[in-house]
């Protein structure tokens, strides 16, 4: 079975080549090119462009208020998503885990929205927000539903959160459920015998046993929330004005709909990549440490 | 005991309300897709006066949903087949070959899973143009293979570790060549993870919006989501048609969910735990 010398490499390369070539063409090389373009003033239409060093990066931090606004808005969104998505998903998972007969049914129902694409979810919810809710507010006692969900920046942020949570909670719930199934029954029983109430059981037995699931879910939420695009595109398109514009949308606008400044937009995407990287590395460090302790 | 029962009722009530919220938008979309615009505005909540497929028929005839459905199906099929073929070959070999080169290649694959799509979309459009891969669903499928193999290689790589080597050694002694061994011995054993990857990739490609948006301009090559997007963007929103096309886009996904729920959930936890 052990092959000698160059034959081993030939067979390795032959098996890996199909995957690697497509991967290199459409992912690896574009990643490297993106880094390079971010240092140029390429505008997409003009075939020639110059190397401009860090000019793009200086410009986007000093002369581009829209970009900075989009970073702040995205951060606000990320914080809300990290908290609510995980709290709600964990709550639902714990409650479902406590059921016996209806466990499977509830799991199926809560996960279902996650099957739909974010853009389809956003379109569906636009129908709910702009058509169904106003009618309900008008004709029933649910008057609080009658808000300008899409038009008023305060409510459109809420609308974006609602749709993201509606779509995303099920996914995290599945991971938490898998984590909860790994909590040994005898530990819970021991805690009950020691007189722990439900909250004490949760805080001191369940939670420490599922820190691995928490690490994963925080990572996935952080990673996904920074890249939010479809929900905002489908609901508000970044408006009214630019009040709900997220980073990805700002990049998209810069590259494809406004001025085709590909070099400058590439610099923005490098910043996005760095932000995601820094936040997830910090988060993994912090939560991994907790995992080892427990 | 009374209190415990009460709490149990409370939990049931909470979960039932929660799942109603989860279902509400889907239910509303399906329900109202059978109504005309006029009937809809009389009441969104009421059941349709009669089950009418007029919206669907109009979506198919006027908006050529048939061709965009076929396009979506074609892209998904080609993309999935390509990913399964390329990634199983690579994942198997990388897992079975010790050494620095194979370790480096594997690392290169999995490290790229962190790169956000938005960071590569600009250079990707240029690359796709240069390779004449943009503008058609066939080129699009190849791009999906390039973007999707990293995750699939990762999952195959992990799965191959659980297959005993004795089988391959026995086949090798019997004089089986490498490619034949892969086809006859290895690939059949990879079936469980292959199903998982196929389903996850179907959900990804079928539901994807941004890549087709930047790659496809010709309406004859539109995927279902792009058609829906155009319809949605029109000034005078015809909700009856939009809802019909939303439901059409959602149906295949929900069917897959109904049949392969276990695989989907296992795929998620599998991918998550190993990552």
Automatic annotation (TrEMBL), chain A:
<feature type="transmembrane region" description="Helical">
    <location>
        <begin position="71"/>
        <end position="96"/>
    </location>
</feature>
<dbReference type="GO" id="GO:0055085">
    <property type="term" value="P:transmembrane transport"/>
</dbReference>
<dbReference type="Pfam" id="PF00528">
    <property type="entry name" value="BPD_transp_1"/>
</dbReference>
<feature type="transmembrane region" description="Helical">
    <location>
        <begin position="157"/>
        <end position="180"/>
    </location>
</feature>
<feature type="transmembrane region" description="Helical">
    <location>
        <begin position="12"/>
        <end position="37"/>
    </location>
</feature>
<keyword id="KW-0812">Transmembrane</keyword>
<feature type="transmembrane region" description="Helical">
    <location>
        <begin position="262"/>
        <end position="282"/>
    </location>
</feature>
<feature type="transmembrane region" description="Helical">
    <location>
        <begin position="116"/>
        <end position="137"/>
    </location>
</feature>
<dbReference type="InterPro" id="IPR035906">
    <property type="entry name" value="MetI-like_sf"/>
</dbReference>
<feature type="domain" description="ABC transmembrane type-1">
    <location>
        <begin position="71"/>
        <end position="283"/>
    </location>
</feature>
<protein>
    <submittedName>
        <fullName>Sugar ABC transporter permease</fullName>
    </submittedName>
</protein>
<dbReference type="GO" id="GO:0005886">
    <property type="term" value="C:plasma membrane"/>
</dbReference>
<comment type="similarity">
    <text>Belongs to the binding-protein-dependent transport system permease family.</text>
</comment>
<keyword id="KW-0472">Membrane</keyword>
<keyword id="KW-1003">Cell membrane</keyword>
<dbReference type="InterPro" id="IPR000515">
    <property type="entry name" value="MetI-like"/>
</dbReference>
<keyword id="KW-0813">Transport</keyword>
<feature type="transmembrane region" description="Helical">
    <location>
        <begin position="201"/>
        <end position="222"/>
    </location>
</feature>
<dbReference type="InterPro" id="IPR051393">
    <property type="entry name" value="ABC_transporter_permease"/>
</dbReference>
<keyword id="KW-1133">Transmembrane helix</keyword>
From TrEMBL, chain B:
<dbReference type="InterPro" id="IPR000515">
    <property type="entry name" value="MetI-like"/>
</dbReference>
<feature type="transmembrane region" description="Helical">
    <location>
        <begin position="73"/>
        <end position="92"/>
    </location>
</feature>
<feature type="transmembrane region" description="Helical">
    <location>
        <begin position="12"/>
        <end position="34"/>
    </location>
</feature>
<keyword id="KW-0812">Transmembrane</keyword>
<keyword id="KW-0813">Transport</keyword>
<keyword id="KW-0472">Membrane</keyword>
<protein>
    <submittedName>
        <fullName>Sugar ABC transporter permease</fullName>
    </submittedName>
</protein>
<feature type="transmembrane region" description="Helical">
    <location>
        <begin position="239"/>
        <end position="260"/>
    </location>
</feature>
<dbReference type="GO" id="GO:0005886">
    <property type="term" value="C:plasma membrane"/>
</dbReference>
<keyword id="KW-1003">Cell membrane</keyword>
<feature type="transmembrane region" description="Helical">
    <location>
        <begin position="104"/>
        <end position="125"/>
    </location>
</feature>
<dbReference type="InterPro" id="IPR035906">
    <property type="entry name" value="MetI-like_sf"/>
</dbReference>
<dbReference type="Pfam" id="PF00528">
    <property type="entry name" value="BPD_transp_1"/>
</dbReference>
<feature type="transmembrane region" description="Helical">
    <location>
        <begin position="137"/>
        <end position="160"/>
    </location>
</feature>
<comment type="similarity">
    <text>Belongs to the binding-protein-dependent transport system permease family.</text>
</comment>
<feature type="domain" description="ABC transmembrane type-1">
    <location>
        <begin position="69"/>
        <end position="260"/>
    </location>
</feature>
<keyword id="KW-1133">Transmembrane helix</keyword>
<dbReference type="GO" id="GO:0055085">
    <property type="term" value="P:transmembrane transport"/>
</dbReference>
<feature type="transmembrane region" description="Helical">
    <location>
        <begin position="181"/>
        <end position="206"/>
    </location>
</feature>
């Amino acid at each position: 079975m052990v092959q000698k010398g160059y034959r081993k490499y030939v067979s390795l390369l032959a098996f890996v080549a199909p995957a690697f070539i497509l991967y290199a063409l459409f992912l690896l090389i574009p990643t490297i090119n993106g880094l390079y373009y971010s240092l140029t003033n390429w505008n997409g239409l003009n075939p020639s462009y110059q190397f401009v060093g860090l000019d793009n990066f200086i410009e986007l931090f000093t002369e581009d208020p829209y970009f900075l606004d989009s970073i702040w808005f995205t951060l606000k969104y990320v914080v809300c998503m990290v908290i609510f998505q995980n709290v709600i998903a964990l709550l639902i998972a714990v409650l479902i885990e406590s059921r016996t007969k209806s466990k499977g049914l509830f799991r199926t129902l809560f996960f279902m929205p996650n099957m739909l694409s974010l853009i389809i979810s956003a379109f569906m919810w636009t129908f709910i927000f702009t058509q169904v809710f106003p009618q309900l507010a008008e004709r029933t006692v649910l008057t609080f539903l009658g808000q300008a969900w899409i038009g008023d920046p305060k409510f459109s942020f809420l609308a974006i959160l609602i749709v993201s949570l509606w779509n995303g909670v099920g996914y995290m719930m599945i991971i938490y459920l898998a984590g909860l199934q790994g909590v040994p029954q005898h530990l819970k029983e021991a805690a009950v015998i020691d007189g722990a109430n439900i909250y004490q059981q949760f805080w001191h037995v369940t939670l420490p046993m599922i820190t691995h699931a928490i690490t994963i879910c925080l990572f996935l939420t952080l990673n996904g929330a920074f890249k939010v695009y479809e929900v905002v595109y489908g609901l508000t398109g970044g408006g009214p004005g630019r009040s709900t514009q997220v980073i990805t949308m700002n990049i998209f606008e810069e590259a494809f709909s406004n001025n085709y400044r590909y070099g400058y937009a590439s610099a923005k995407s490098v910043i996005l990549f760095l932000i995601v990287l820094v936040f997830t590395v910090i988060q993994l460090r912090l939560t991994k440490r907790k995992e080892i302790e427990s | 005991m009374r209190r415990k029962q009460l709490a149990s009722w409370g939990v049931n009530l909470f979960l039932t309300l929660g799942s109603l919220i989860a279902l509400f938008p889907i239910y509303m979309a399906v329900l109202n897709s059978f109504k005309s615009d006029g009937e809809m505005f009389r009441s969104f909540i009421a059941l349709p006066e009669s089950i009418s497929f007029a919206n669907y028929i109009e979506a198919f005839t006027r908006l050529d949903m048939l061709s965009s459905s076929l396009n979506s199906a074609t892209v998904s099929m080609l993309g999935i087949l390509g990913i399964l073929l390329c990634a199983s070959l690579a994942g198997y070999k990388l897992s079975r070959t010790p050494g620095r080169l194979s370790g480096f290649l594997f690392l290169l694959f999995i490290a790229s899973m962190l790169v956000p799509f938005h960071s590569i979309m600009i250079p990707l459009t240029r690359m796709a143009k240069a390779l004449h891969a943009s503008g058609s669903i066939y080129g699009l499928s190849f791009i999906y293979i390039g973007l999707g193999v990293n995750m699939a290689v990762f999952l195959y790589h992990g799965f191959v570790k659980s297959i005993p080597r004795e089988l391959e050694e026995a086949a090798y002694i019997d004089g089986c060549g490498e490619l034949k061994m892969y086809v006859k011995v290895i690939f059949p054993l990879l079936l469980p993870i292959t199903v998982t990857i196929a389903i996850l990739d179907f959900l990804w490609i079928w539901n994807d919006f941004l890549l087709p948006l930047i790659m496809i301009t010709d309406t004859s090559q539109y995927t279902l989501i792009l058609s829906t997007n155009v319809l949605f963007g029109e000034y005078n929103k015809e909700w009856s048609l939009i809802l019909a096309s939303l439901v059409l886009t959602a149906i295949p996904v929900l069917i897959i969910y109904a049949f392969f729920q276990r695989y989907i959930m296992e795929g998620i936890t599998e991918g998550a735990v190993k990552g």
